[in-house]
Amino acid sequence: MKHAILAVGALLVIVSVIMGGFSVGNRYAAAGLFLFCLTASTYFVTWPVSRDEEQHWRFNSDFVWLSIYLVVAVVGASWLGFLLF
Amino acid sequence: MKLMIKKVLKGVAVLLAISVTTILFLYLNRTNPYGIIPGRQLVEEEVTEPIADWSFTEQFRTVTNEVRPSDPYSVNTSKLLIDGVLYIPSGGGIESRWAQFLLQDPNMRIRLGTKLYPVTATWVQEPALLAQLREAYDRKFARPPGEERTPEELGRFGFFRIDSR
To answer: Most buried residue, A35, A48, B38, B52, by CB count within 10 Å?
Structure first.
C-alpha cells in the first residue's frame, strides 16, 4: 500500500510537470510532491539517536533522510496551501 | 524490495535537498518577480526626465511595479493606456497586497522594457472613469467565448492612474 502511494505521488509530480511545465501555479505538482515526501518519510521513521548493543549512544543516519523528506513535505504542503487558499 | 526502495529514496532525497536549497537561495536573492512570487528592488537604469505621454508603453505587454520604497516589493501586472494616460489594474482591487502598499505610499517605480520610471500612483475613484477603464480592460484582455468575466468579477477590478514624478 505504501509503495503504491509513493508511486502515485511520484507519478503525479512527473505527469503534472510534463503537462503543466515547471510552474509555481502547478498545484498537482505541489500535491504530488507533498504526497511523495510524506510517504517517503515513513520509510525512515527513527529517533535521532539510539543505544547500540553495547549501550553506547549512536546517531541514526536514517534521521537525516527523514528530516529531508519532512522538510520538503512541509514545503510542498505550504506551496499547495498557498495555491488553494 | 524495501531496501532497494530506501536506496532509491536516499538518492531522491539528495536531489530534493539540492533543489530546495538552490530554489531557496534564488528566492532569497531574487530581484525580479516570477509568476505569482513577488520580487524585490529592481536594478535597471532609472529615467529621470518626467513623462507626459505614455503612448510609447504600447510596445510593452506587461509592466513591473516596484512599490513600498522603504522595503521594495515588485509585481508584474498588465497595463492600460487611455488618451496617453497610463493605468495599472489591480485584479484583486484594493485588497491586493501591492495595492495596499501603494495606498500607504503612492511613490513607486515602474519598469517598462529595460528602464525604470519613478512615478506616483493615484487610486481611481471617479465612477464614470472607473466604468470606462473596466470596459476598456475587458475589451483589451478579452477572455475566450464561454469564459467571459462576470460583472461581479469585473467589478472587483480597480485601477491606479500613473503620473511621472
So the answer is: A35
Residue in A56, A65, A39 with CA at minimum distance from that of residue B14: A65
Q: How far is CA A22 from the centre of its chain?
A: 19
pLDDT tens-place values along chain A, 85 residues long: 888 999 999 999 999 999 887 777 889 999 999 999 999 999 999 999 999 888 899 999 999 999 999 999 999 999 999 888 8
For testing the chain A interface, which of B16, B23, B32, B97 should be mutated: the one with the most A CBs within 10 Å? B16
Residues of A within 8 A of B13 (CB-CB) are 40, 65, 68-69
Q: Answer whether 0.80 is exceeded by the pTM.
A: no
Determine how many CB atoms are found less than 10 A away from the CB of residue B9: 22
Q: Chain B: nearest CA to A55, how far in angstroms?
A: 26
Q: Is B17 on the interface with A (CB under 8 A)?
A: yes
Report d(CA A42, CA A64) in Å as an integer: 13
